[in-house]
Specification:
- About 70% of the residues lie in helices and about 0% in strands.
- By secondary structure, it is mostly helical.
- The protein has one domain.
- The radius of gyration is 19 Å and the shape is globular.
- The structure holds dephospho coenzyme A and adenosine-5'-triphosphate (ATP).
- Adenosine-5'-triphosphate (ATP) binds next to helix 1, helix 4, helix 11 and helix 13.
- InterPro entries: CitG, TriPribosyl-deP-CoA_syn_CitG.
């Protein structure tokens, strides 16, 4: 039941032809589900959520939901791109993914009237969906370590190529590298999502195992990210002091017991108010929160076969 033919000379994709459509659909659902869960989690400091638009004046919940809808069709394309390039060296795959990535960014801007809702997420999920396609094509396991290592391989030398040796800085990320040495979204991807693997994913998995609550697990992951991630969005808006403020505040909440502390939700709402007052938005951590949920749910590839698609687990939460 594959929707596209196996490579010339092959009768089936490694792992069984019947798995291909299942994987393509599941990866797209997971990526979209991750974006929806991220934006609906409330309250999030400085970010767009159900409570308010955070430190943003040009976008709200509807803008994010519309944007997620517009970019969703690209997730399968990233998967297919990674799969069709599974024999090419990892570092060649980035150029292929990027042409779809640029088209996806265009679709995002067209849907939002020019507002940057998901630029960082398009980059992260373009790489992740491409890595899943590539590893599936190679018949390798679709687990956190394999997929993250593959992303790191695809992004090998990206920081050196695009930031270190780049000419005049044009984007915010390029400026911040030259000014402060921050490697932003590129550095995080090139490290194989080291901040996620070290801080937010363990926090998510521990709290979910302990409480059975996905919401609490997402909050635990968010706090872990806010305390540790060198978010270039915070530095762009508030300088190094803006980043330090957020990291200190999040570390304080963690020291007080994190999601298990009394009045945790009220503390998060107060954190939100403090960031809005300072015009700070941790957009990079929001992206990595979505990445955390996606990586946590990769186990669905192992647990289900294509006759039993996990509609429940990856269905979108009601807005
Ligand atoms: C690498 C990207 C994100 C470039 O953006 P930029 O130079 O502004 O870099 P920067 O690191 O500041 O990231 C922008 C976005 O990433 C997110 N982000 C910020 N900090 C971090 C961090 N520490 N970790 C992860 N994500 C982060 C935020 O959402 C931010 O808005 C990407 O958009 C890109 O490659 N652009 C070039 C055009 C292209 O190829 N687009 C298609 C990409 S598939
Ligand atoms: N819930 C969210 N709220 C706000 N930003 C988010 C959210 N989720 C993800 N982001 C990320 O934050 C980025 C937007 O941040 P921001 O608006 O600060 O960037 P910008 O458009 O480059 O800067 P500015 O608005 O200062 O011109 C998006 O690229 C997106 O990936």
């Amino acid at each position: 039941m594959g929707f596209y033919p196996p490579p010339p000379g092959r009768r089936a994709w490694p792992g069984g032809e019947s798995c291909s459509f299942h994987h393509q659909e599941l990866v797209a659902r997971l990526a979209h589900g991750a974006l929806i869960r991220e934006v609906l989690l409330t309250p999030k400091p400085g970010l767009v959520d159900r409570r308010n638009s955070g430190a943003h004046r040009d976008m709200g919940l509807d803008t994010f939901l519309t944007s997620a809808e517009a970019i969703a069709p690209w997730f399968s394309k990233f998967f297919l791109c990674g799969m069709s390039g599974h024999r090419s060296p990892a570092e060649h795959v980035l150029a292929m993914l990027r042409s779809d990535g640029v088209a996806c960014e265009k679709a995002m801007f067209a849907a939002t009237g020019g507002i940057n809702t998901h630029k960082g997420s398009v980059f992260a999920f373009g790489l992740l969906c491409g890595a899943v396609g590539r590893c599936h094509g190679q018949g390798r396991p679709l687990d956190v370590q394999t997929i993250c290592d593959e992303v790191a391989g695809i992004c090998r030398d990206l920081v050196e190529r695009e930031l270190d040796r780049a000419g005049e800085a044009t984007t915010a990320g390029e400026h911040l590298f030259h000014q402060y040495g921050l490697t932003g979204a590129r550095g995080e991807a090139a490290s194989g999502f080291q901040t996620v693997r070290t801080f937010s994913l363990p926090a998510f998995l521990a709290v979910e195992a302990e409480t059975g609550s996905e919401q609490l697990a997402l909050f635990a992951a968010l706090l872990a990210l806010l305390a540790s991630n060198a978010d270039t969005n915070l530095v762009a808006r508030g300088g190094p002091e803006g980043l330090l403020f957020v990291q200190r505040e999040a570390s304080r909440l963690l020291a007080e017991g994190g999601v298990h502390a009394p009045y945790f939700m009220a503390k998060m709402a107060a954190f939100d108010d403090a960031l809005i007052k300072r015009n700070l938005s941790p957009g990079g951590s929001a992206d990595l929160l979505a990445v955390t949920w996606f990586l946590a749910r990769l186990s669905l590839f192992r647990d289900h076969n294509d006759k039993n698609l996990p509609k429940e687990e990856v269905s979108d939460v009601d807005a």
